[in-house]
Specification:
about 240 residues, alpha/beta, Rossmann fold, Arc Repressor Mutant, subunit A, 4-stranded antiparallel β-sheet, globular, OmpR/PhoB-type_DNA-bd, CheY-like_superfamily
């Protein structure tokens, strides 16, 4: 069954090219050019992934990004932005986008980035057999990669697919320091200069959610190097 993709892009020539590239990946694409058209499409279809241009003729794509994350927590959201709009990219990531692509972009890069999100969707929806390897148990922290659930002190942590994969990667390597470039390569599956904001924003969102459960020091910044998963915090939380 083809995954449904919502493409929101007002440059009709670019939208045609992007649609063809997505169809090459055997995806069912609905292409619209305004926020109003996007809202109507969302009322009638369930989309696995939305590709959202932040500059649209009838409004700001940032507001739609926030609505999508709130209403469709498992949907993948990829932003397309001009290289000069750094603040919009950061705001979009902070509001829940999974990734962004700077215009102009190569078609090879575009397809590769979409494949990363499709892989995450497949992990969420493909049944797998229970195994001890599916679980990570560190003090008061429990992560189940089969059900995509995380519990801390018995309370469930609500995460997007990308946030879950980032936390899962950290938990598999407690106290090991990773640079932003290493995290981009290992979690997002690509390594390109200029996309470090993707890592920063996801870590900020993770920290906010973890802090709400009393885990404010679970992901530490190692200044000048990167980030690490602090399992000492978990042992304190379990005490």
């Amino acid at each position: 069954m083809q995954e449904k993709i919502l493409l929101i892009e007002d440059d009709l020539e670019l939208a045609t090219i992007m649609t063809l590239q997505l169809q090459q990946l055997a995806l069912d694409v609905t292409a619209v050019s305004t926020l109003n058209e996007a809202q109507r499409a969302l009322q009638h279809h369930h989309f696995a992934l939305t590709i959202l241009d932040l500059t649209l003729p009838d409004g700001d794509g940032l507001s739609l990004c926030g609505q999508l994350r709130l209403c469709y927590p498992t949907m993948a959201i990829v932003l397309t932005t001009a290289k000069s709009s750094e603040l919009d990219r950061i705001l979009g990531l902070e509001m829940g986008a999974d990734d962004y692509i700077c215009k102009p972009f190569s078609l090879r890069e575009f397809q590769a980035r979409i494949k990363v999100q499709l892989r995450r969707i497949a992990l969420l929806t493909t049944p797998s057999q229970p195994s001890p390897h599916n679980r990570i148990h560190l003090g008061c922290f429990e992560l189940d990669s089969l059900s995509h659930e995380v519990h801390i002190q018995g309370k469930q942590l609500s995460l997007t697919a990308t946030e879950f994969e980032l936390l899962h990667f950290f938990a598999k390597h407690p106290n090991q320091v990773f640079s932003r470039a290493q995290l981009l390569d290992s979690v997002w599956g690509y390594l390109h200069d200029g996309y470090e904001h993707t890592v920063n924003s996801h870590i900020n969102r993770l920290r906010l959610k973890l802090t709400e459960l009393g885990m404010h020091d679970l992901i530490l910044t190692v200044w000048g190097v990167g980030y690490k998963f602090n399992d000492k915090q978990l042992r304190r939380g379990a005490a």
